[in-house]
């Protein structure tokens, strides 16, 4: 298991959880609290995966140690068999000496095999050790981020509330821009002006009618005087001058 595969999976889960929370977020506090819980669970998943990687490394190290120890033991056995063969050969026991030399060769073959296995495991152990150190560092970084998130929880909530308030203000401003109340006042003013004009027209009509009535009265008075003078003429009376001489 590699560093990339472990933290790649964890980061994918984190992004998925965050995106899901943001898409369905209604209450900022609930969202942040859920984010803390999810991130905590992701850290637990990372710890489990890293523990497994460390376990695999320890198995490799144990096997390597056993191979090294086995190579040393077979080397000692080969040395002991070779010395015994030399001792027997010096005593004239050539056949027995050859048997111990054969045992020494077998031991050397086992030694070489163990050494080969030990050398083959060393690059894997080195690589796994580097990966484990990076995983531990990454895990510590995740824990630090979680601590920062918890510490900034109040700040984030306050910022979320401010952002929400600003959004509401902007929505209100936008609605005012779209539905300008002064335009309605303008329409109402036009209506009042039309009503005022109509009232003025009615007043002018009424005034004209009153003038006509007074003119009719004047004409009637003049006709009455004419009739009186005509009656006087018919009765034989002298017509009075319209104006008496001074």
Strand content: under 5%
Termini separation comes to: 144 Å
> Can you give the helix content as a percent range?
over 70%
Structural class: mainly alpha
| Nearest-integer average pLDDT | 78
The Cα radius of gyration reads: 59 Å
- Large-scale geometry: rod-shaped
Biggest beta sheet attributes: none
Number of helices: 5
N-to-C series of helices and strands: HHHHH
Instruction: Name the poorly predicted regions.
Output: 242-246
Question: Can you walk through the features of this model?
Answer:
This protein is mainly α. It has helices at residues 3-24, 28-90, 94-151, 153-178, 181-234. The N and C termini lie far apart (144 Å). The model is unreliable at 242-246 (pLDDT under 50).
Name some characteristics of this structure:
mainly alpha; 246 residues; rod-shaped
């Amino acid at each position: 298991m590699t560093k990339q595969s472990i933290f790649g999976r964890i980061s994918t889960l984190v992004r998925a959880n965050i995106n899901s929370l943001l898409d369905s977020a209604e209450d900022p506090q609930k969202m942040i609290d859920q984010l803390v819980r999810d991130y905590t669970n992701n850290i637990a998943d990372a710890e489990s995966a890293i523990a497994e990687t460390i376990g695999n490394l320890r198995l490799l190290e144990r096997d390597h140690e056993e191979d090294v120890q086995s190579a040393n033991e077979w080397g000692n056995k080969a040395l002991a068999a070779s010395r015994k063969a030399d001792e027997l050969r010096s005593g004239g026991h050539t056949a027995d000496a050859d048997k111990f030399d054969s045992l020494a060769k077998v031991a050397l073959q086992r030694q070489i095999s163990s050494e080969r296995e030990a050398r083959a495991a060393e690059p894997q152990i080195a690589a796994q050790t580097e990966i484990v150190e990076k995983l531990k560092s990454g895990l510590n970084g995740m824990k630090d981020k979680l601590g920062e998130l918890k510490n900034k929880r109040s700040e984030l909530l306050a910022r979320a509330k401010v952002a929400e308030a600003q959004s509401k203000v902007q929505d209100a401003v936008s609605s005012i821009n779209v539905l300008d109340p002064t335009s309605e006042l303008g329409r109402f003013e036009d209506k009042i002006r039309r009503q005022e004009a109509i009232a003025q027209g009615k007043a002018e009509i009424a005034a004209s009618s009153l003038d006509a009535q007074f003119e009719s009265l004047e004409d009637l008075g003049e006709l009455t005087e004419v009739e009186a003078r005509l009656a006087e003429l018919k009765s034989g009376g002298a017509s009075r001058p319209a104006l008496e001489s001074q």
